[in-house]
Amino acid sequence: MPITRTHLRKHVHRVAIQAWHWLVNTRAQAWLQSSVTGRALVSDEELLTLLHQVQAMHAVGRRHAMQPQPGEQLSPFVGRGSDFEEARSYMPGDDLRHMDWRATARTGKPYIKVYRQERQSVLHLVVDRGATMRFATRGRLKVAQAARMAMLMTLDAHLMNEAVGLTLLDSGGETLRPQSGQAAIQTVIDHLNRPAPPRDDSVDYLEAVNASLADIELLAPTGARMVLLTDGRFIKSQHLALFARLASSREVSVVQILDVAETRLPRVGLVRWLDVVNGDMHVADGSDPEQRRRFDQAAREWLQTIATLLEQSGVRLHQCSTEEDAWAFVSRNLLHHE
User: How far apart are CA 169 and CA 89, in angstroms?
Assistant: First the structure.
């Protein structure tokens, strides 16, 4: 029996609530291979422009005239250090060497001494390079937008004598420990500019992401700034506890990079999409007002779910489009202007 337009409409109505999931994962794998892999995400000319933008801001005095030297900055978080900060109630796992015996004797309850840390400022960047980041209908690919913003923050941190660490969320899951200096910063830039790896069906991407995020707890020191650049597709309720632990002793921000088509179904009629995550082909009707309404509603609900989860974790959320100027966004939201 031939498939009529009526049958197709009924089918599409049943799946419209999920259409925005498919849209995120679209574009044929052949297109992804040719447009994302095999070439740098940012050209040499673009990288030079990014460097000039950061240098110009520092030159006109929008940052400290005298950059702090490593070890001069006080962490907003407390821990082991040399300057006594306060005494607080003992908690299981605290180092007994820091017991405040006088306070303990005076109150009859165990107290521990807490010291303010002195540290070199650390910026740890986490860049999502999964399949859903290799998508855009306008502007630039999400993964390329993330690379530009991460490069800008890296260059700014270098000029502020900060150490920079990097975790790439992809099939390789590579991590660079925080380091400072010209050679270390160049290594970070080179890693950020690597072509996104091809899809690897032999690797469970979510498991790889979870393992990389868990490692960050060990690599990003207390008091570090941590910025995650992602579209948020991998973020689930199971990550709430991990984000909360990270945010309890670090300044954690998430930059959610979105294409306009992820929040509003385009009016393009019947369209077929390839889900690059599982290889399924789907159909949606952008000319149908009801499907557009359901799509937009589902997108809003998903965005609100992510925002609520991050808020509960104590993580700051920023949203950026693939069309937005990377420098304007970074300088407005992610740099510590003094």
Answer: 38
In angstroms, the CA 31 to CA 21 distance is: 19
For residue 118, list its beta bridge partners. 74
pLDDT tens per residue, range 172-212: 778 999 999 999 999 999 999 998 877 776 677 888 888 88
Q: Is 104 left (phi over 0), alpha (psi -120 to 50) or beta?
A: alpha
Check: CB of residue 310 under 8 Å from CB of residue 317. Answer: yes
Residues in Cβ contact with 299 at an 8 Å cutoff, skipping those fewer than 6 apart: 20, 262, 263, 264
Q: Work out the mean pLDDT of the chain and round it to a whole number.
A: 79
Smallest CA-to-CA distance from 166 within 195, 186, 138, 182 is with 186
In this structure, are residues 257 and 231 in contact, taking their beta carbons and an 8 Å threshold?
yes
Q: Give the pLDDT of residue 196.
A: 80
Say how far apart CA 75 and CA 13 lie, in whole Å: 54
pLDDT tens-digit series, residues 99-136: 889 889 988 989 888 765 556 789 999 999 988 898 88
User: How large is the angle between the packed helices 44-59 and 326-333, nearest 10 degrees?
Assistant: 40
pLDDT at residue 217, as a whole number: 84
* CA nearest to 143, candidates 124, 170, 172, 123: 170
CA torsion, ordered 153, 155, 160, 166, to nearest 10 deg: 60
Whether the Cβ atoms of residue 305 and residue 237 lie closer than 8 Å to each other: no
The 10s digit of each residue's pLDDT in 43-98 is 889 999 999 999 888 887 654 444 454 554 444 544 444 556 678 788 776 778 78
pLDDT given for residue 2 in this prediction? 54
Q: Is the pTM of this model over 0.85?
A: no
